[in-house]
Design goal:
Blueprint: H1 2-20, H2 26-64, H3 67-74, H4 80-92, H5 98-110, H6 115-127, H7 130-140, H8 142-166, H9 168-179, H10 191-208, E1 215-220, E2 225-233, E3 237-243, E4 249-257, E5 261-266, H11 270-276, H12 278-296, H13 299-331, H14 336-342, H15 348-360, H16 368-377, H17 382-391, H18 397-407, H19 409-433
Antiparallel strand pairs: 1-2, 1-5, 2-3, 3-4
Length: 434
Amino acid sequence: MKEDFKKFGAFVGIFLVAYYLPLSNPKVKEAILEAFRLLQWYAREHTLACVVPALFIAGAITTFLSQASVMRYLGPKANKLLAYSVASVSGCVLAVCSCSVLPMFAGIYSLGAGLGPATAFLYSGPAINILAIFLSARVLGFDIGVARAVGAILFAFVIGMLMAIIFRREEKEKADAALHMPEPTGSERTLWKTACYFLCMILFLVFSDWFNPGIATVTLQDGTEMKVHVRYETKDTLTLQSYDEGREITSEVKTYQRSEIKNITPVPSLTLSIYHIRWYLAGLMLLAVIVMVGSWFSREEINQWMEATWDFTKMLVPLLYGGVFVVGFISVFIPEKQVALWVGDNSALSNLVASVVGAFFYFATLTEIPITEALMKLGMVKGPALALLLAGPALSLPSMLVIRSVMGTKKTLVFVSLVVVMATITGIIFGYSV
């Protein structure tokens, strides 16, 4: 009955939006177009390369990892230092955006991982991105890079521990219930076979979702040549952020039709070189997975894996797509120039605004750096910039919707609040110290 009321509320909300949306308003038309543009970019750039592999990994976690193993290393009664270290390290080695981490978080949490280690993993995956931290130091300043690295690592531990403390009663009940569960049946596969299988699955995700730096030289049909950062691409358009003559990024962001662009030449880099061969590397990993599955897994196990993957797909994908669409729609009404006006000093309000905007906006891997750089050109100071970097990559409206479906409204609100409050306080302290 409760689920039916939720669905009814969603139907009513969609009906009211469709009934009253002022389609003749130019701003609303622009917002609808931007929503579909962002949704198409997400479908083209992130679904097949990012979300789909993560869903298969999540299904594999619940199918092939024993609950006893998860409880031993990540359960509520596991050694705290070991549990949070495993969660943080396993999250940060992925170097992917939040939409990849979400299905895996759902997988380990459903297997019995403690709330603290699970949320530490949830935060660390997109936030403790080694490449992003190095680029933050190089592009935004060494002090911001160091502060982001230290802040993100501490956040993973502190947020996880606070979540475990706040919900300690529920965690104790969860641990007690796990003690009375029957022992899982042993697997016919040895540990090294399972480890190789998961390693290749994760490497496939890392390579398929490898980041394109997006720095390129664009030549328009009229002969104009400019250095740009490609924000995102759709089937028909490219949204570009230009550089000035001093080779520093500007706040100017424009969307061009592909027909307006004569040529686009990426600026060479090691990251780009790997990006060009990512599908060959991912293909090798996929081939290895197929061979291992065919050799080591029974048909019944494969069917269970597919069923678990489909269950996660039904639960997570509609929320991700819906959240991305809403973010695209809202972004038109809150342009970056307006945000920059709100974060021009190091007050508590400015840092709070930066944290909240970062928490709700969707950042793909590393895109937070040119966006923050543009905001700093428009007047954002360093304190709010750090707050944005600490809250933004780890959270987004799509991720909030998914997290709520996994661990409930109350825990989601507390998790989001902890991220926003800690990012705000850290931004204030950092702003006054530099």
